[in-house]
């Protein structure tokens, strides 16, 4: 199981995909020791930045517990770690983001189980966000590293006209979605593309391989969705051609695909 540790002034927290472990240092009011908490029991996370003559803190607020307000109250709280400086604060920003990401993934799994085996959601993590793919939609979840800030956006798979995938090299790679009505940055520069709301950055080779699978999965879902529209054998050639023209106008197929089908229908 992967885990990451984040150290503060009077202790540390260790984050895994299922739990958070609070490790108390000798300066903690609890004394040395540790406590493990399940992600599902964490209701919210309070993060306060250190200021002049005042420490900051990260506080895990559990279901049924009350938030301790202020640094003095947090210092005596068993679910809080104090933060001394900017470097520690940046660490705990990442910790908060990671915990919330793992909680979101747990929620997706729970929702998928409720919907039954016929429904699936695949999750792909990038450098500044997460892509969730279902048979009908994709969801882009922006992390705090994304230029859009925290948030999410859902796009219908039928509306996606193309997917651009760039492998990371000296600079980050990316996956970018183009769809009807979108205003994407189509620059070849990775820096420009990463600023786009329909793009997720790719930091390493492992992420690139994951997003190759994501691209293939989305395209397979698109083929399944389009199949009923393009396999009708009872329509006339003119009706068939009209349907493909509508798909072209909607940006669902390219002009080359339309011309190929046109030649096939007309027997050219």
From TrEMBL:
Domain annotation DUF4429: ranges: 25-89, 142-209
Boundaries of every SHOCT domain copy: 239-266
Descriptive protein name: BH0009 protein
Superkingdom assignment: Bacteria
InterPro entries in the record: DUF4429, SHOCT
